[in-house]
């Protein structure tokens, strides 16, 4: 009798393994195919995220395959790239959108194919569309005000340590603001929060001018050259939404004999990202400080949460991530700030 039962068990196993629905059994033998749409591949932070994703793929070839497109700052081009990924029936899409005003339009196209999507880094003006794509869409970014607050902390320390020269002795910081792009929430909050942080600490500020330079070094250099010719003797601080624009500003100052090592000819400049060139400039004393973004943390979150969505699991299953108050947003903390040879 025991022998017969054993045979029955073996037959049952055989039938189960060779059933007519093998896809369910062998579902995980193929790697997840994740389409990655970058708004601009030569953006420093985005390039670091891309490189980390490639590293993750190389370490998990049986688990994930990234299909990466560079939108080159062109929404029409990114639309075509998205259409290719949808046609190719990828398992999940990571969308670093070029124009945040097009978020709902692109989301509707993705929903037609029932593909999960993670918007990242460039936050849509509203997350309502993401909420409506239940259990299929989320946003991964940062808390923009956190970077502004950290920039503010750099300025406060420099001011109190007499690192910022009060040229006209009015006990007020005269500053020039370099912003990303007009519609970018990250740029808006960084700009608002850095100034608010400074003023909350009983330090007066006065904005001389502002310029939207779309995160671009060349634009920032040109804008600073023009401003310096008009207000060179008044500028005490340049606040930049990212390091690339901060470096552009410094290059313009250096062409005018400033920020080359002479403490009497120095204008404080702060940025965000923690790029290698910014770190070197801080070490050389040409730049005041920078806030460091966590590119590895962003890429890892995309991989882990994206894998869950691709497999039909809850987005945060088996992770330590938490949703913010929106219920669909994940916020990656900044790593800290670098200021005049000390990391905080």
UniProtKB/TrEMBL annotation:
Keywords of the record:
Calcium, Metal-binding, Periplasm, Signal, Sugar transport, Transport
From the record, give the transmembrane residue ranges. Answer: none
InterPro entries, per the entry? Bact_Solute-Bind_Prot2 (IPR050555), MglB-like_PBP1 (IPR044085), Peripla_BP_I (IPR028082), SBP_2_dom (IPR025997)
Q: Kindly indicate whether the keyword Signal belongs to this entry.
A: yes
KW Calcium (keyword) present = yes
Predominant location of this chain? other
Q: Which GO terms describe its cellular component?
A: outer membrane-bounded periplasmic space
Location in the cell reads: Cell envelope
Q: Which CDD domains match?
A: PBP1_GGBP
Annotated GO molecular function terms are: carbohydrate binding; metal ion binding
Limits of the Periplasmic binding protein domain: 36-313
Query: Quaternary arrangement and interactors, per the entry?
Result: The ABC transporter complex is composed of one ATP-binding protein (MglA), two transmembrane proteins (MglC) and a solute-binding protein (MglB).
* Protein's UniProt name: D-galactose/methyl-galactoside binding periplasmic protein MglB
Q: Which gene encodes it?
A: mglB_3
